[in-house]
């Protein structure tokens, strides 16, 4: 008997050849999307708050009032902030007492 290509059965190819664990088809290529399940936004100043239009990789919020500089909470409204960066606030964290607007860097007490 002569063996030809017609007599050798083709091996069955797995249908999930290019699907890694956790892969979920959306019908679109992910194109480098860091999280294809939610929108991400650029965080230029690295404070954890994003801004602008959605991007491929970034943070999951777009609440930053100014993504070019860090902003701090000003609880007493004296114009001087304190504590860790927040999404919206003032551009300094020099208030030594953010619970009393009469005490700030312009006063003797600070
Ligand atoms: Ca930011
Ligand atoms: Ca303050
Ligand atoms: Ca103060």
Question: Which SSEs are present, and which pair or pack?
Answer:
Layout: E1 40-42, E2 51-55, E3 71-73, E4 82-86
Antiparallel strand pairs: 1-2, 3-4
Bound molecules: calcium ion (3 copies).
One calcium ion binds next to loops.
Give the key terms.
mainly beta, rod-shaped, two-stranded antiparallel sheet, two-stranded antiparallel ribbon, 110 residues, binds calcium ion
> Strand tally, please?
4
Regarding quaternary structure, how should these chains be classified?
single chain
Tally of individual helices: 0
Q: Kindly name the structural category.
A: mainly beta
Order of helices and strands: EEEE
The main β sheet shows up as: 2 strands, antiparallel
Rg result: 28 Å
Proportion in helices: under 10%
Bound molecules: calcium ion
Low-pLDDT segments: 14-29
Query: How would you write the strand order of the largest sheet?
Result: 1-2
Per DSSP, what share of the residues sits in E-state strands of 2 or more residues? 5-15%
Question: Cα distance, first to last residue?
Answer: 100 Å
Shape: rod-shaped
The averaged pLDDT comes out at: 84
């Amino acid at each position: 008997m002569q063996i030809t290509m017609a007599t050798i059965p083709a091996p069955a190819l797995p249908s999930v050849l290019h699907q890694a664990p956790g892969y979920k088809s959306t019908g679109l290529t992910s194109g480098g999307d860091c999280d294809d399940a939610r929108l991400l936004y650029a965080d230029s100043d690295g404070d954890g708050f994003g801004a602008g239009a959605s991007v491929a990789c970034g943070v999951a919020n777009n609440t930053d009032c100014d993504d070019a500089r860090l902003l701090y909470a000003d609880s007493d409204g004296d114009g001087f902030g304190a504590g860790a960066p927040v999404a919206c606030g003032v551009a300094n964290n020099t208030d030594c007492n953010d619970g009393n607007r009469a005490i700030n860097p312009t006063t003797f007490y600070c």
